Amino acid sequence: MSTGKRVRAALAGLAAAVSLTACGIQESDVIEAGGPATVDVLPAREVRMLLFFYSPEGTLMPVSRYTGEALGDSAVERTRVSTAKTVAALLDGPNAEEDGYGLRSAVALPALAPKVEPGRGTVAVTMAAPVRGLTGPARRQLVCTIAYAEDADGQTEVTLRGVDGTLDPARCDAGSGPVATDEPRGADPEPEQDPWGSVRRSTPAGETPAATSSDAPPPAPRP
User: Rounded mean pLDDT of the chain?
Assistant: First the structure.
């Protein structure tokens, strides 16, 4: 399969990979496709890296990047791509094909392999740069890439460290909706205000909006 077809397949199909594994379907499983024929969920981990980039719409999505390394016959040779190598590839940003499809990265850190310290269901990754200034989208991108590099289910708890300290442990949350990738995810926007200073609330169809203290008629003058 050509590189272009692989990227198109990633954009069209691999966005479902996270939800599939969350439902208990492993990468080594196959899914029935309307009959005897079956299709693989993901390529073998020995020949690909799963990187998380943002789509043109701002949705975080997994993209399978082939490493071009052939599988060996022995169990020793059949090892997955290391987390350090995967993170270094993420920090290097989308390749030419991925960039051509509008994929982009929110992470602005040097493309250096980090120090990886795995534990039981957890992993600590030390970057050779500050991490406290990472935006929300950048952190999500890193956490999801690291979690799926460590575990096919992406359930590993990730702690990011840098030269300026340590961030709180986090898990991959790739199912959220689109976000702006050029600024941190802030608090929910404030409710819209009307010219009188009262909060504008939605009213169900067919109902008359209730009067507020700001738009109620003034009291009648005393006789």
Answer: 69
